[in-house]
User: Which sequence fits this backbone?
């Protein structure tokens, strides 16, 4: 099993935390390791160690309203770029991705198809900023023709279009300024809410990225809002695109909510089949041995395998 390592703090464009936590911080991080997955401390990652095949950068930026704070980590191959530029993989839940990647992942890319890796995370010490993530990764909702921010599980959502605009207007230009990348080989990976965002982007702005890789998307969110987007989507707009959809089917202690009127897994499988029938190059795979949280690693590994395809 191999994924890809990433990033270090060689370039800073905003305030970052000290690399060595104080004793109280260290105690809090240790306690956080037993809490909800998204609120666990990141801890030591591949970004904290030198790599012979990649160099790393870290940047920070804020949302336009100042309410959300992002950490953008870029891994750039230490080889000459192809004439057209490197492929580039944008990874949502960047903090969690960083905690998942390994030296073997970087080595795999370096010897097969060197790729720029971009971890889009939040400038916090935990794997996620759950409040910001709930807003950024979820689609807007219509309320009698008016845009109203949906509230799901007590968190305000609906900011996916704003977040996509931030990626396109600020993060993509940042990456293009820091590394020679091929804009026609820009891929997006997301898991859970990140998978929801990835499919929302495909269904609303399919040309935003060349390839889409999705792990266990939260199709249940807001009574199946994603299913409604899929039903309204002209699937032939995705014809020719490479799309990977990977789901964990290990039973959960607490079952997922239904995706609107249908089961989430059935809804996602229907999306995959419909996209394939419309001419997309779709990989759909179920992992009975993995639960939802474990699909972070499994789907990101599949993303790297898709990236190195010709």
Assistant:
């Amino acid at each position: 099993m191999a994924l890809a390592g990433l990033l270090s703090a060689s370039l800073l464009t905003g305030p970052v935390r000290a690399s060595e936590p104080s004793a109280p911080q260290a105690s809090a991080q240790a306690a956080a390791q037993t809490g909800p997955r998204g609120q666990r401390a990141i801890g030591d990652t591949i970004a904290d160690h030198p790599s012979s095949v990649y160099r790393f950068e870290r940047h920070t930026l804020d949302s336009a309203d100042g309410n959300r704070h992002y950490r953008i980590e870029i891994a750039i191959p230490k080889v000459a770029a192809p004439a057209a530029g490197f492929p580039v993989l944008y990874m949502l839940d960047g903090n969690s991705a960083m905690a998942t990647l390994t030296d073997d992942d970087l080595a795999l890319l370096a010897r097969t198809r060197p790729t720029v890796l971009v971890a889009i995370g939040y400038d916090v010490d935990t794997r996620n900023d759950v409040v910001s993530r709930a807003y950024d990764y979820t689609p807007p909702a219509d309320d009698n023709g008016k845009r109203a921010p949906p509230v799901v599980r007590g968190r305000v959502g609906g900011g996916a279009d704003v977040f996509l605009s931030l990626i396109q207007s600020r993060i993509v230009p940042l990456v293009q300024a820091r590394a020679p990348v091929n804009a026609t080989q820009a891929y997006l990976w997301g898991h859970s809410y990140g998978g929801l965002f990835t499919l929302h982007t495909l269904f609303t702005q399919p040309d935003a990225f060349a390839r889409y890789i999705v792990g266990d998307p939260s199709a249940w969110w807001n009574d199946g809002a994603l299913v409604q987007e899929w039903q309204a989507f002209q699937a032939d707009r995705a014809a020719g695109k490479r799309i990977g959809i990977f789901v964990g089917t290990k039973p959960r202690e607490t079952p997922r909510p239904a995706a609107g009127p249908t089961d989430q897994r059935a809804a996602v499988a229907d999306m995959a089949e419909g996209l394939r029938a419309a001419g997309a190059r779709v990989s759909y795979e179920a992992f009975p041995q993995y639960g939802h949280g474990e699909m972070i690693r499994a789907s990101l590994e599949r993303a790297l395998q898709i990236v190195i395809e010709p």
